Amino acid sequence: MNIALIAHDRKKDDLVQFVTAYRYIFEKHSLFATGTTGQRIIEATGLQVHRFQSGPLGGDQEIGARIAKNEMDIVIFFRDPLTAQPHEPDVSALIRLADVYRVPIATNMGTAEVLIRGLERGDIDWREVIKNMRQ
Ligand SMILES: O=C(CO)COP(=O)(O)O
């Protein structure tokens, strides 16, 4: 699975903690992240992470483009709902594309826990499920 990891500044500690706790799951997948988030995860865990631009410099849009190409299977995006972001349109666009392409997206740690445990159980074969629904 290709997993995108993103966190706003005040949520970065939470995401680093989350990835560290579930390292044994994340290490089995391909990880992608916005610039600063990716740097923090690499420093804390030593995991291999493909880093895009920093969010405000276009990283959210780069991940959105991957979603539009069906190249992202899960998005974990710890948003800060209490701080205005200069690149809010990019944030909205990324979340919108996840909905357009029905990509599972967790915007807080509660949902991320559910997703990652589902992934551990092998439950996240959602592309198959959606394909069957369309038939
Ligand atoms: O701003 C972000 C997402 O909108 C995150 O970007 P960074 O990981 O580069 O801080």
From TrEMBL:
Residue numbers annotated as active site: 60
UniProt-annotated binding residues for substrate: 8, 12, 34-37, 54-55, 87
Top enzyme class: lyase
GO molecular function: methylglyoxal synthase activity
Catalytic activity: dihydroxyacetone phosphate = methylglyoxal + phosphate
MGS-like domain residues: 1-135
HAMAP family in the record: Methylglyoxal_synth
Function per UniProt: Catalyzes the formation of methylglyoxal from dihydroxyacetone phosphate.
Protein name: Methylglyoxal synthase
Name of the gene encoding the protein in the UniProt record: mgsA
